[in-house]
Amino acid sequence: MNSTEPFNREKVSPRTLLKPNTKSLEMYQYLSGSPRVQSYLRTANRMAVARLGYTDHGHVHAEVATWNALRAFDILDETFKPNIVAEGIGDSDDARLVVLSSTYLHDLGMVIHRKEHYQAAIHLAAPILEKKLDHIYDDPGKSTDILSAILHGIYSHDDDIQCLTFEAGVTKIGDGSDMSKGRTMVPFHKGKVDIHSVSAMAIQDVHLEKGTDKPMRITVAMDNPAGVFQVEGVLMKKLSTSGLKEHINVEVLVNGERLVLSQVKRLHRDLVSSVPRE
Question: I need a surface site. Which of 11, 165, 227, 263 has the fewest CB within 10 A?
Fold first, then answer.
């Protein structure tokens, strides 16, 4: 996807970032074609949107977050060595498989409850992954190592959990970068109008690109400064525990005009103070 084109959540597919005849593509085809996985994602979205009034946590979010994560992987892989490679477990394709799997399945636990859904997700994802990994890898030891890395990525996508691998950090970036207004469209039109939904509706595009002074730049374009609430409350919060924060620049554009960091911080403080206390 060209960075100058408007971001369309409904048309994004990780397949476009995967090379033919790779293990990562084989895993994507398995997960995207699995009736069980897709049923879990539908149920997760029912819990998130219909019952809780939250943003999309279903199939589209899984696709977009995974696309973001793979994009981030490709950019940052030029600077950092994935743990899977550095620790002698596998190659770059194995590392991409880890990122793809952990990102695609990270919200499966929402079928049970929002609270501690990152813990529930690892229990639901493990049996889904085990059979496929044993098919992809002849070595049971390697299959287990890969599974462990995926489960760490799923568990660590929670804001407060510190990522301990490059792959987990990239998964968290992929999740946190899915902020464009399409993700909150349904709850907003159902009447959920608060600073969270208004902020999310303000964000038009999120672009992940190579940086200049740092390896990667995330540009968040919005048509209303309320979108700053999402940048600080969602993206920056996840970056803070990704292990990669110091290597990423976040740029905020409001109607094409760049906000400096001090403006972003001030706007966020003002927006937070305007939220009614329960």
Answer: 11
Q: Which 8-state DSSP code applies to residue 4? A: T
Cα torsion angle, 127, 26, 99, 176, sign: negative
Beta bridge partners of 259: 252
Q: Of 186, 122, 110, nearest to 148 (Cα)?
A: 122
Domain range for 252 is 181-274
**Are 199 and 124 within one domain?**
no
C-alpha torsion angle, residues 106, 18, 130, 109 (rounded to 10): 10
Tokens 């979108």 — which residue? 227
pTM of the model: 0.87
Tokens, residue 208:
């992940």
Domain limit, last residue, from 162, 197, 214: 162
Q: Count other Cβ atoms within 10 Å, centred on residue 9.
A: 17
| Kind of pairing between the strands at 216-222 and 203-210 | antiparallel
Binned at pLDDT 50, 70 and 90, residue 37 comes out as very high
**Are 128 and 187 members of one domain?**
no
What is the tens place of the pLDDT at every residue in 61-115? 999 999 999 999 999 998 999 999 999 999 999 999 999 999 999 999 999 988 8
Classified as helix, coil or strand, 249 is strand
Q: How many domains is the chain partitioned into structurally?
A: 2
Query: Do residues 117 and 107 touch, judged by C-beta distance below 8 A?
Result: yes
Please say whether the beta carbons of 77 and 92 come within 8 A: yes
* The pLDDT value given to residue 116: 92
